[in-house]
Amino acid sequence: MTIDSTLQALANGTVLGLLYTAVALGLSLTLGVLGVVNMAHSALLIASSLLTWQFVNVAGVHPLLALLVIVPVFFVVGALIEHVLLRPVRRQPESTGLLLLFGLLIMVESLALAVFTTDPRTLRLGEFGQPVTLGPVTVTLNRLSAAALGAIGTVALYLFLQRTMVGRATRAMADSRDAAAVMGIDTGRLSTLVFGIGVALAALAGVALAMSFTFSPQEHVRWLAWAFLIVVIGGLGSVPATLVAGLLVGIVESFAGFLLPFQYIHLVIYAILAIALVARGGGLMAAASRRL
Prior knowledge:
Number of domains: 1
Number of helices: 12
Shape: globular
Strand content: under 5%
Order of helices and strands: HHHHEEHHHHHHHH
Number of strands: 2
CATH topology: ABC transporter involved in vitamin B12 uptake, BtuC
CATH architecture: Orthogonal Bundle
């Protein structure tokens, strides 16, 4: 590879990695804090992408303006999911909540297919899709903006967890729900807030995804697998680790695309997953001990 192609691969990988980080953030948060495997995460993400398409291609709204509506709406949806579906079964086996969320996944996917069919969707970006050139590196404005959304979401979540009283309470609940309750923290309301934030982050990722790729309702399974991949490599609930894992996967995928045939790219990514699991010695259980 030449220096120019190396820089281009690095730029592409960084943009892709920030998008992957955005895809995984909400799942990492709910899994790390609440111990809830949100099986509907990717279906809600794709639902956000489809709503973005509706705003942009049908209503003519800029995707960044659509974001200002979609993210708050999905926060409310997430809060309702936790309050209506998950809170009543909190004391029951974890499989009960898992099955409820899997049922929600099927419902969201079926509704999306009924409304939008299986046709692939692409945003009409116009000038927003023009290339931006910095020396030997060229990135389209829409992908650069999607990467910026991933970075903003990551920084915002980190500052929320580290610098606010609610964030500190969230970290306390992640360490021990019972101890947090004894300290006077309303763990019920906080769980609703955290799950709402997790779904809002999925919506943010959905907008960024729509700005970057062609998508369709049934593609959510791919993004669920990718989100789990980032979470396993980075660790549960750790925002910096999720960012590092997302960037690692994005950059490795980008360089593999330059150096290897297409069919070997995912093999390299899953090799990284295997190495991470072996190095941790306990996979998800070992990652669960990480601090937020």
